[in-house]
Design goal:
This protein is mostly beta strands. Helix content is about 5%, strand content about 40%. It has 2 domains: about 5-85, RimM (Elongation Factor Tu (Ef-tu), domain 3, Beta Barrel), CATH 2.40.30.60; about 90-160, SH3 type barrels (Roll). A hairpin with a 2-residue loop joins β3 (about 35-40) and β4 (about 40-50). The longest helix is centred in the middle third of the chain and has 5 residues, at about 65-70.
């Protein structure tokens, strides 16, 4: 079953294994309806979730120490894609995909995060050399994600320093 990335673990919170997370959804309030997540394919049940101004504090079953929480720093939280009733591509469908230029087989980078901006969303793309860039999320710039192949095409790379 396909999965959908919905958040990134930012850092541990406290000494009992709680996680500070950044949601990658356009409906952060709806984030609380998820009862389980997977990280690297391993399922975790939600013990608690608290909304804060800059994200959420999440407690997952089996993550009970600060050390266990630290080991998850930077990891992506996914849900079963079937839980979201939408045929349209969602922000989380793009996270983790290889970014290709039109007609190119080799990727120029990878979508690493979604950032909500004041005027609209931005994808953080980390180039193959490790340099991150922010690219506006617009239909004109981004092709449809091919989740099965793990790739997406960026239509106008010159204006975003990816070449």
């Amino acid at each position: 079953m396909p999965t959908l990335v919905v958040a990134t673990v930012r850092k541990p919170h406290g000494v009992h294994g709680a996680l500070k997370i950044l949601a990658h959804t356009d409906d952060p309030e709806g984030f609380s309806r998820y009862r389980a997540f997977s990280i690297d394919g391993k399922p975790y049940a939600v013990e608690s979730l608290v909304r804060q101004a800059d994200g959420f504090i999440l407690k997952l079953s089996g993550v009970d120490t600060c050390e266990a929480a630290s080991a998850l720093r930077g990891k992506l939280l996914s849900i079963d894609r079937g839980l979201v009733a939408s045929d349209a591509p969602l922000v989380g469908d793009y996270i983790g995909l290889a970014v290709h230029l039109p007609g190119a087989e080799a990727p120029v980078g990878r979508v690493s995060a979604y950032i909500e901006g004041g005027v609209g969303g931005l994808f953080e793309v980390v180039r193959a050399d490790g340099v991150p860039f922010l690219v506006p999320v617009t239909r004109e710039l981004w092709g449809l994600p091919d989740v099965e192949k793990g790739r997406v095409t960026l239509q106008d790379p010159e204006s975003h320093f990816l070449t």
